[in-house]
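Entry:
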Amino acid sequence: MGTLCHLRRLKKTLVSGFHTWWKLQATNTAGKQVPRIYVTRQIPPDGMKILHQSKLCHIEQWDSEDPVPRSELLKKVAGIQGLYCLLTEKIDAEVLDAAGPSLKVVSTMSVGYDHISLQELKKRGIRLGYTPDVLTEAVAELTVALLLATSRRLLEAAEKAKTGGWGTWKPLWMCGHGLTDSTVGILGLGRIGVAVATRLKPFGVKRFLYTDMSARPEVATSIPADFVTMDELARLSDFIVVCCALTPETQGICSKSLFSQMKDTAIFVNTSRGGVVNQDDLYQALVNGQIAAAGLDVTEPEPLPIDHPLFKLKNCVVLPHIASATVSTRNAMAALAANNLLAGLQGEAMEKEVPL
């Protein structure tokens, strides 16, 4: 009994001592005037762990899974040195003006940065970190899954099975389009485009085509893939996979002029950005039978309203932007964004920085 009482007293002493130490540490940290950063959302734990353990910054955060309201963002960025954001936040002149001249670095937990005004950052001398490479494999996997789900009508078939539509066997019921001996066209042969082609190759694809701003023989030869014009890509491909970045040049590039040249058996898949597709033109192409089907992981806007016409089509599969949604990938993105931010605060080289 005496030993037990002694252990209880020791525990109470240790806990009390820890609380005293923690208060002292907090006071010391506050006295050092460490940089303030703002994190615009709940992020995967690996990212927050890096930020907390660095003890290089004072962290404020919008502690929710939902996007920070614009008014809250404008209020909280005032006087910060670092901003950790996601692709849902529009970082423009208004936000940067609200932050003021103290802001040194913006780090986005995304591979795309079309939500950020590069011109405004450059004008103010603010550095930008992003998270390419770490999500390449996950996005490529999802792209292949979406292509197969769309071309083989998997969601439509599953719905039939659940709702009583599964009757006697019929020779042409639920028939889709296969990859064997097909031609796959890739719009944008970057890291993800190459990873998609690598995963599709074992399915027996006969030929790979690609179009880009210019020929990329150094990466195309490993597939191999032939460089063609946009029109040739449309006419010759059985599957078109969009993997390009959203830029002023690619905004709305997938439109009526593309769909009207595609085969009526062709499948269109987009896992890049919703803005590269004219969705009205895509809808008409699907309704009028200009193309067979479409699979979309990205839309404009996001989320796509539930009454949008594309949701009513059996030959259109729409996913809620989940291409990078594996636990390991999202943690890797969060960690890279955190490390980029810390490097920027210290004036050091970032692991992944957008040249401005």
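Residues 1-31 have pLDDT under 50 and may be disordered.
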